[in-house]
Write a structure and sequence with these properties.
By secondary structure, the protein is of the alpha/beta class. Helices cover 35% and strands 16% of the residues. The strands form four sheets. It has a four-stranded parallel sheet with strand order 7-6-5-8, with helices on both faces. Helix 6 links the parallel strand 6 and strand 7. Helix 4 runs parallel beside helix 5, helix 5 runs parallel beside helix 6 and helix 9 crosses helix 10. The radius of gyration is 19 Å and the shape is globular.
Length: 296
C-alpha cells in the first residue's frame, strides 16, 4: 500500500443529501452522528485512488485472507487494527437452493445464510464495525432503541469492547432477546408502547447525558452501514466478482439495503466489478404490520 501500515483508507464523511458544499467533506476523526447542517444521515467515503494503488488489497490477496468481514478492512472505517472488536463475524456461506428454486421457477436461486454469524443475525455486522469505530473514537457509553436482534448484537460487541450500552425496548419485545441482552451486561429499559416510544426515551436520555451517551440508533451514526455493506462485498466475491440479477432482502430500518448498494457502488469505483454492470434489483421484504419501506 501507499503506507505499509495503512489499515483503512477512510477519507471523510459526507451528507447523504449533499445539502451544502461544507457537508460534502466532514472530518471523521471525531464523534459524529448526523449532518451538522441538515441532520441527514452521514456516509463514509474512502480515498479510492489510494486504495487502487494498494498492492495488498486486490481480489486475489483478499481471497487468501481470514474468512471474516475484516478481510475488506481497507474499505472499512477503523484506522487501527488494535481497535477492531470482533467475534468472528462475516463471510457467511452462499448456498445453492435447487429444490426451492425449481419449485419457484428459479433454478439459479442462492441463499446467504446469516444465521451462523455471532448473535445469529446480520445485525452483528453493523455492531462489529459500529462498536469498533466507537471504541476508536473514545466512546464510553452507547445508547439505542431496539426490538431485540440489533440490541443483542450491539450488547455483545459492547461487552467485548468494555463499552457500556443502554437499550430501550418495547415491553412486548421477545423475552429471549431481553434475556440475551441482560446476559451481556447491558442496561435494558422496558418501555410501554412501540419502538418509536423506545426511540423517544433514548433521545431524551441522550439530551440529558450532555454528550456522555453516543446515539447508535438506526441511521443516526455512519458506521453501522459500513458493517452491513460487507454483505455486498461478500456476495460479489462469492459470485466470482459479478453481481446477481436480483437480491431479496428482509429489512427493518433499511440499513442493509443502503449498505449493499454502497458496496456495489464502491466495487465499481475500485474496478473489481465492471463499471457498466447493472445494479441488482433490490426487493425489500417487511412484516405486513410494520412495512414503512415497502409502503414508501
Amino acid at each position: 500500500c501507499a503506507k505499509m501500515s495503512t489499515f483503512s483508507f477512510i477519507s471523510h464523511l459526507e451528507c447523504s443529501k449533499k445539502c451544502s458544499e461544507d457537508s460534502m467533506h466532514i472530518t471523521s476523526n471525531q464523534i459524529r452522528n448526523l449532518c451538522p447542517s441538515c441532520s441527514a444521515p452521514l456516509l463514509v467515503r474512502y480515498n479510492i485512488d489510494e486504495v487502487k494503488k494498494c498492492t495488498d488489497f486486490t481480489k486475489e490477496k483478499v481471497a487468501s485472507r481470514p474468512s471474516s468481514l475484516w478481510r475488506y478492512h481497507e474499505m472499512l472505517p477503523v484506522l487501527e487494527r488494535d481497535n477492531v472488536v470482533t467475534l468472528g463475524e462475516g463471510m457467511s456461506p452462499l448456498w445453492h437452493a435447487p429444490k426451492l428454486g425449481n419449485k419457484l421457477g428459479l433454478p439459479n436461486l442462492w441463499v446467504k445464510d446469516e444465521g451462523i454469524i455471532p448473535t445469529g443475525t446480520f445485525k452483528a455486522r453493523g455492531a462489529a464495525v459500529g462498536v469498533s469505530k466507537a471504541k476508536e473514537l473514545g466512546v464510553h457509553t452507547i445508547a439505542m432503541p431496539t426490538n431485540g436482534n440489533a440490541g443483542a448484537a450491539w450488547a455483545a460487541y459492547c461487552a467485548r469492547a468494555d463499552i457500556k450500552i443502554v437499550l430501550a425496548m418495547p415491553e412486548d419485545a421477545p423475552p429471549l432477546a431481553v434475556e440475551e441482552i441482560v446476559a451481556y451486561g447491558a442496561t435494558a429499559c422496558m418501555v410501554k408502547g412501540q419502538i418509536t416510544d423506545a426511540g423517544r426515551m433514548i433521545g431524551s436520555g441522550i439530551k440529558k447525558s450532555s454528550g456522555a451517551w453516543y446515539d447508535a440508533s438506526t441511521l443516526k451514526e455512519p458506521y453501522r452501514i459500513e458493517g452491513k455493506k460487507t454483505m455486498g462485498y461478500e456476495i460479489a466475491e462469492q459470485c466470482g466478482w459479478t453481481l446477481p440479477d436480483v437480491i431479496i432482502y428482509p429489512t427493518g430500518g433499511g440499513v442493509g439495503l443502503i449498505g449493499i448498494h454502497k458496496a456495489f457502488e464502491e466495487l465499481k469505483q475500485l474496478g473489481w466489478v465492471p463499471p457498466h454492470a447493472p445494479y441488482p434489483r433490490m426487493v425489500c421484504v417487511q412484516a405486513s404490520g410494520c412495512a414503512p419501506i415497502v409502503r414508501a
